[in-house]
Design goal:
There is one protein chain. Helix content is 77%, strand content 0%. The chain has helices at residues 2-17, 21-25, 27-42, 47-54, 58-67. The chain is globular. Helix 3 packs across helix 4 and helix 4 crosses helix 5. It starts with a helix and ends with a helix. It is an all-alpha fold.
């Protein structure tokens, strides 16, 4: 599993290095928002399951959902 994630990060890093510095400043928030969206979709919108899959508390998930306008 870790090896697969590492390969994905390597590919993502190549993409990140090909964009402008301004775009790079938003990389982590963009990744975090997309990951939350995709896991929420996968869990049918279940916040408890989503927070467990992401390894964060439900309260943290809700705060991040609010931050990214996902509520």
């Amino acid at each position: 599993f870790e090896g697969s994630i590492n390969n994905l990060i390597d590919k993502l890093l190549e993409e990140i290095l090909s964009v402008t510095e301004e775009q790079r400043e938003n990389v982590f928030p963009t990744i975090e928002k997309l990951l939350i969206e995709k896991v929420l979709k996968k869990t049918g919108g279940n916040q408890v399951k989503t927070s467990k899959m992401l390894g964060i508390s439900r309260n943290t998930l809700r705060k991040r959902m609010e931050r990214y306008g996902l509520m």
